[in-house]
Amino acid sequence: MDEEKLKKYVDQRNYYDQEGYKQSCRNRLRNLISKKMRTMMIGFLAEMEKCMGENWGHGQIDGECTDEQLDKKAIWKMCRNNVLDYGNKQIRAIEQELEDYIVELRKKQFLFRKNQTEET
User: Fold this and answer.
1) Would you call 66 exposed, middle or buried from its count of C-beta atoms within 10 A (0-12, 13-18, 19+)?
2) Which of 3, 39, 48, 119 has its CA 20 to 30 A from that of 107?
3) 81-109 burial string, b = 16+ CB within 10 Å, else e?
4) CA 49 vs CA 45, 58, 65, 69, 71: distances in Å
5) What is the pTM of this model?
């Protein structure tokens, strides 16, 4: 293999190594953000159940709940599902948004650069 071909091969390998590193950084950040957002949503719902759950008989079986509690439980389930659906939708939007950035990890500090697309 002559020197020019070797240099071209090394340059190409370095490029793919860098692209792979950037992709792994983006994936790591995506996973960190998703996990923290999910933890936030679940924590919020758990706190609501802890503070206000007695209103809908949280922890009781349906047979022990009053009609008023059952009505409130139905409202709570709808609200809980809406919070989870909306939160998951926002997580997907963030994950998609990250695709527009070049992400590099440097000692627990993420550097973001907007991808530049070439116009022809």
Assistant:
1) exposed
2) 39
3) eeeeeebeeebeeebeeeeebebbeeeee
4) 6, 7, 15, 13, 15
5) 0.69
